[in-house]
Structures are given as structure tokens and as C-alpha cells.
Fold this sequence. Notes:
The complex is a heterodimer.
Chain A: E1 4-7, E2 10-13, E3 19-25, E4 31-37, E5 43-49, E6 56-57, E7 65-66, E8 76-78, E9 87-94, H1 100-103, E10 106-107, E11 111-115
Parallel strand pairs in A: 2-11
Antiparallel strand pairs in A: 1-3, 3-8, 4-5, 4-9, 5-6, 7-8, 9-10, 9-11
Chain B: E1 3-5, E2 10-14, E3 19-21, E4 24-26, E5 32-38, E6 44-50, E7 56-58, E8 64-68, E9 73-78, E10 87-94, E11 102-103, E12 107-112
Amino acid sequence: EADIYQTPRYLVIGTGKKITLECSQTMGHDKMYWYQQDPGMELHLIHYSYGVNSTEKGDLSSESTVSRIRTEHFPLTLESARPSHTSQYLCASSELGTGGLAHTQYFGPGTRLTVL
Amino acid sequence: AQSVTQPDIHITVSEGASLELRCNYSYGATPYLFWYVQSPGQGLQLLLKYFSGDTLVQGIKGFEAEFKRSQSSFNLRKPSVHWSDAAEYFCAVGAAGYSTLTFGKGTMLLVSP
């Protein structure tokens, strides 16, 4: 079954640690996205990608970085975690193109990050 | 640029009662419209989408939404709410020429017994 996966689901880590949040999809989608969402709040787009070797910054400035070496994989990295990075991080994917299907995003279950 | 407004932050509905969640968008041409649902601690699940054609669209879990161009609205409805429908609901808009979706701030649905 085609799906989108995120690991870990929950992460508690100390300040200053380097972390990588994993996102993989088996739907063959070219476009992938990372959102940041505080509890009960709206989604903020922080990164997206059109395909391999393509990365773009989103609407919300973020200290995180992303890479896209394989179509199915879009990891997000924080070089030095801080308490202000505590949030839920959601990964999504969609087809490439300009029509409605290209705007239809499918989401992973999210990673809840807590930085102490 | 497109924008989305969900006027209600919280809505409480009795179980078995009907539901309508409001969504208004701002965009000059025909938008691509979506409703997503998010349970606590989970990602977003796509309920339904509208691209063109019939303005009344059916989705999963018994939900439907109606696109009204004259009102720039895409309200979500369900005739009889179940306790399991309690969640956060997000409306989103996309458009040709834009790379990403714009999400509303969400409406939290509470279901009372």
C-alpha cells in the first residue's frame, strides 16, 4: 500500500544535539513538503522540494535544513536543537504538475519533537 | 496571493446533530479546495477536494462540501455527527501558478453526548 512514513514519531532530546527527522513515501510523488505545527495551531510550511536535488524554503523561516537525494526520501536536519524547536513536524507529498492533483497533499503521521 | 479564513476556532455539536464548518477563500480564478481532518497527535487526512465540475463533492466518513463561487466559500457538512468526528478540521486552497497550499487556521470540533 502506498503511504508516507515519518520516524521517529516522538523524540525528546537535549539542547545542542543534532537531529534528523526522517520522511519517506512510497507513492512515487515528486513533490515533498515539511510543515511545523505547534499544538492546536495552524500549519507553517518550512521547506519543500520539486524532486531530486531541489529544495526551497517555505513561508516560515526555519533553522532546519533539508536534502533530497532520492525521490522517496526527504529528511529534515537540525544541527543544534534548541527549546524553541519544540513542535510537531509534518511531512507531506504530492504529484508534480500544475493541476489539482499536483496540489493534493498526503501527510505522514508527524514527529513530535521536544527539546529540553 | 490566495488566503483562507476559517471563522470558527471552536464548534461544539451534539452527537447525532448536523454539522457545518465554514471556509472562505480569496483568489481571483477557480481555486483548488481541500478539507483535511487531524486527530490529536496525528497527521492530516484528506477528507475531500474540489477542482472543477459539480459544486457538491462527497468525501470520506460521510462528509460533503459545497463550492459557492458567489460567496467564495467551501463549507464542510455532515448530516449526523459521531463522537469519533471530534478533531481539528483544516480548509486549504491551491491554485494554478502557485507551488503550495495555503491552509486555514483550523476549526476544533467538539462533540457532546
